[in-house]
């Protein structure tokens, strides 16, 4: 479809029930194939160790948390790395087919206006730090942990949504 | 299946579905917290229920060994604190870790900055790890790791409870979406 401005109109987003069933099938298949669920910060933690190996090798080696990952010199050598590379490929393919690829600074309307780069950075820092405390993120502990009916998974989801609701009250909607 | 191939295929399916659902869009994701777009709850609840019921059925059929599945340990204080921080990061930054990858792949610069923040947050954690290590094992519940074991309820009762909760989320969510601006569309 082409609108008046001559731009290609993106496809509408998928119905949430259908998307939820498809996501459930992917999650179930992940458990059957690997014995664990889906994730994300397992990779970003290893990526941090990998970057540290080149930028600050001595400090990274000596670090209690990251040191073990760089011991054999291949912190990225793990299933979760391939899974996240897959996420990037799948997301790119889907966005391309739905004509939704657009280079932009998104989220200004609801998340800080001109200060959007700062909210994105600060939010990322909080999430990155928090995911290490909990040893998992929304996918790894929330989604996957709840699917195996774990107390930790449900606890994570509970405070995740409660604090998210609370914090978003402090943002005013821009134009 | 080789590890690389299974990771790539499962990951690609995961990323494809997240992008289809609109979860690369920070306006849609945070709409859940403004209670104008309930897609996050709807998709997550449906996926959790589908996978939980699916696992139960496969276990009963003897196709999956329950003992071989990873159940995260019940460090409930750590899970609560981490969940709170990831929730705050989501509300402020517009993404969670996985969805920021999806946002980046659809061209969003703010998602790239969020990812950079994730790495920085990990660095901060690693640097002060000796001082805060105790937080990562906070509030351990020693009796059980899972809901059925903790309360001595059968897994199918929990699954039925979750199905009812999911239906409730759809009803309540759709009602609140109608009363407000409604879900964020890709064509805005």
Account of the 3D structure:
The complex is a heterodimer of chains A (175) and B (188). By secondary structure, chain A is mostly helical. In chain A, 63% of the residues lie in helices and 0% in strands. Chain A is built from 8 helices and no strands. The radius of gyration of chain A is 19 Å and the shape is globular. By secondary structure, chain B is mostly helical. Chain B folds into 2 domains: 28-70 and 154-180; 75-140, no CATH class. Chain B has helices spanning 3-21, 26-34, 39-60, 76-93, 97-105, 109-127, 129-132, 147-151, 155-179. The longest helix of chain B is centred in the C-terminal third of the chain and has 25 residues, at 155-179. Chains A and B meet through α1, α2, α5, α6 and α7 of A and α1, α2, α3, α4 and α5 of B.
What descriptive keywords fit this protein?
heterodimer, A: globular, B: 188 residues, globular
What order do the helices and strands come in, and which of them pair?
The complex is a heterodimer of chains A (175) and B (188).
Chain A: H1 16-34, H2 41-55, H3 57-62, H4 67-70, H5 79-97, H6 116-134, H7 138-147, H8 151-168
Helix pairs in contact in A: 7-8
Chain B: H1 3-21, H2 26-34, H3 39-60, H4 76-93, H5 97-105, H6 109-127, H7 129-132, H8 147-151, H9 155-179
How far apart, in Å, are the first and last alpha carbons of chain A? Answer: 27 Å
Helix and strand run of chain A: HHHHHHHH
Main sheet specs of chain B: none
Characterize the overall form of chain B: globular
- Separate helix tally of chain B: 9
What overall form of chain A do the CA principal axes indicate?
globular
Tally of strands of chain B: 0
Give the count of structural domains of chain B.
2
Task: Estimate the strand proportion of chain A.
Answer: under 5%
